[in-house]
Amino acid sequence: MLFNSLSYLYFLPIVFILYWSVNNKSLKLQNIILLIASYYFYACWDWRFLFLLVFSTGLDYFTGLKMHHAQNKSLKKFWFWLSIIINLGFLGVFKYYNFFIQSFEDLLSGFGVQSHFWTLQIILPVGISFYTFHGLSYVIDIYNDRIKPEKDIVDYSLFVSFFPLLVAGPIERATHLLPQIKKKRYFDYHQAMDGFYQILWGLFKKIVIADTCAVYANAIFDNHENMNSLTLVIGAIYFSFQIYGDFSGYSDIALGTSKLLGINLLRNFNFPYFSRDIAEFWRRWHISLSSWFRDYLYIPLGGSKGGLQSKIRNTFIIFLVSGFWHGANWTFILWGLLNAIYFLPLLLTNKNRAHIDIVAKGKLWPTVSEFVSITLTFCLTTLAWIFFRSATVGQAFSYIKNIFSFNFNGGIQYLSIDRYSVELILLLLVFLVFEWFSREHEHPFFGKGKNFWALFVISMIIALGTYSEFSEFIYFQF
Hints:
The protein has 478 residues and is mainly alpha-helical. The protein has helices at 6-21, 27-46, 50-68, 73-110, 128-143, 153-161, 174-182, 189-222, 229-260, 278-284, 287-298, 308-326, 330-348, 368-389, 393-403, 422-437, 450-465. Helix 12 runs antiparallel to helix 13 (330-348). The radius of gyration is 23 Å and the shape is globular.
């Protein structure tokens, strides 16, 4: 089931009514309704993989209790590694097995050895990277005595499979979400309306921005050999807005839906395209994943406490693992490597935390220096997105090579591809203005006039959504 589908439009009000109708009766019943709704939501994609979700949940719940009651350190470590190995084993088999087999075959082929190993003919279970990381953080926190295991199987199962975040995050922590699940919740009209506005903004990002940009980005990337430099630059920019509108739009809908149910999720995006350097970008993009890698990989490796060599090593490990997390393709690994290279000058000059606060806070416009920094960071990020979007490494390098051929013959070729043209550029400019003036808030619907803007956004969603293909969210594949 997709957030941008008619089925979700029916599903959410039904869950909302059932959920709040039992508010005065039983917290347990509320959680059971949410758990059933979450499993139904996941089963609508492919009911067979529901068993994998239930097994993963049961594994971490059971091993968490076993670690807590272990009589000695070695037994605690046994249960810990059992959970880690099985969780990563499932992730490795479903997501990375074919990648390693194909890479090994390519390596042998380079030495003149032809081989044909068995590969899996199976689709990737949606959301496996996200709910696996939910479970891993829970198990790691128990092992390190940061939290105690949850004894209620319903509450823990809901923590792992809560439907707004189940298939594409944000990646929650037990310390943040479980207390909310176990605490009685009361309907808050203002929180619910804020959630409704955030859902609207998320749908706008997905249907109006991402899906419209996808029409051109797909056409340009798929035919990049025949496009001139200017068109290729435009195509890369369109993909930058596509992936931002797509993923942050999903996160907004997830957070908004949770607010309707009286639950607050971790913020996953904080206007990343207004970042002044790549370090700030990664503090504002996919925040839950970046913080997960920081807490469970970067800091255990030593973080920034060691010498310069260890700092550089840890930084490259984080970015490479992040790239590999996104997909079983060398394009993602190179995307991670390129971001690590971007980050390196900031690390070497100790300026990686130079920009903590939002740009031009309390001001109408940025300074010239800030504007230049934002533009440069966006350009570097867009260049890296080319690797993320390309099907192969060769295609990515070909795309970049054609950009720097400086062939401007024929003007902007995308104008004849499909519906809209100049209007899309104007739409993106309007979108940036919306984002800029709401950068100190979660979404543009604040203060006076928010109902007018809400009606405008609804009109845009209906008008452009009529032509939308209701495509899946990009991060479903991760």
